[in-house]
Amino acid sequence: MRQIRSTETVASRRPTLATALALLAAGLAACSPADDEPIGPRDTWTPTDGGGDTGTEGTADTGLPPDGCEERARWIYIVSEENMLLRFYPNELRLEEIGTLGCRPTGFGATPFSMSVDRHATAWVLYTGGPVDPAGELFRVSTIDASCEPTGFARGQAGFELFGMGFSTDVAEGDAETLYVAGGLASGIAAGDQRLGSIDTASLVLTPIATIPGSPELTGTGLAELWGFFPDTSPPMVARISKTDGSLDRIYNLSISTASTRAWAFAFWGGDFWIFLMAGSDASTNVWKLEADDGSVTEAMHDIGWTIVGAGVSTCAPVILI
């Protein structure tokens, strides 16, 4: 996701790396979780291949979910404002370019706004609007070659023009999943409370659920949980979200100045959280890791060269490194 300003021009959406004046001034630090409840079963999934080295020293193999999801569904995918789709290997801190998105949004100058990934490793990418066309065009994107097709989703349903997205299984370790969204009018992003909803990916009907604080980016898990990164609350936070009434628990308060935050994305992987954040003075996005066990936050990658506006991870991704 990113800030939407009424005076913003299409050209101003592109970061100019050579003219960036400063790096992120405020480091991320996190308080402990709001309670001692575990994030979820720590031994839910075991390797199907007998384990082995992932290629990263000191990191155990992640394995696959028991339903045999394919390899591509294991990883985090990120999309940039510059229309680049990338694969992120968090166990190696490595980015791999897949390609430029093949989407053709109707709005002149429309750019990606948010993304999620389903259990078939297909990315769902939401676009901003143009000067005339409304925001909220939704596409399905291949994580093999970044090819793209429109979904036919009717924009602006129930007042949801722009929103963050995240798939979550309906029951822990189940196969069925639901796409959850959090947002509202384009003019309201990062400007107060938004709403939580869900999209039926078969009928493409959006159903509102509840009011939610701020403008979170969402991530789900194979444990049927839904989490959000809230950069515009005070203080900024990561929290688990009730899928029935939008209430929050398991809150991690973050000590970070987000007043000038330009773009943000969020994903859960291997038992921890990954925050993709670009402040107004940053040359590009920085990647931060939030440890779920103790709430500590460290910068994992600095100035990656892209403005990341969406991160998607399927419910096939590991919930714990083993």
Salient structural properties:
single chain, 322 residues, mainly beta, Neuraminidase, four-stranded antiparallel sheet
Give a short overview:
Helix content is 0%, strand content 38%. It has 322 residues and is mainly beta. The protein has a single domain (23-35, 62-313), classed as 6 Propeller (Neuraminidase).
Explain what you see.
There is one protein chain. By secondary structure, this protein is mostly beta strands. The chain has a single domain, classed as Neuraminidase (6 Propeller), CATH 2.120.10. It is 0% helix and 38% strand. It contains no helices and 20 strands. The chain has strands at residues 76-80, 84-89, 94-100, 112-117, 122-127, 137-142, 148-150, 162-169, 177-184, 194-199, 206-212, 217-220, 226-230, 237-241, 248-253, 261-269, 272-279, 286-290, 297-301, 308-313. A four-stranded antiparallel β-sheet has the order 3-2-1-20, with no helix packed on it. A hairpin with a 4-residue loop joins strand 4 (112-117) and strand 5. Mean pLDDT is 81; it is low at 5-66.
* Count of DSSP-assigned helices: 0
CATH topology: Neuraminidase
Can you tell me the overall shape? globular
The helix-strand sequence is: EEEEEEEEEEEEEEEEEEEE
Biggest β-sheet strands, sense, barrel: 4 strands, antiparallel
Secondary structure tally: strands: 20
- Terminus-to-terminus distance: 31 Å
Q: Report the uncertain regions.
A: 5-66
- The number of domains: 1
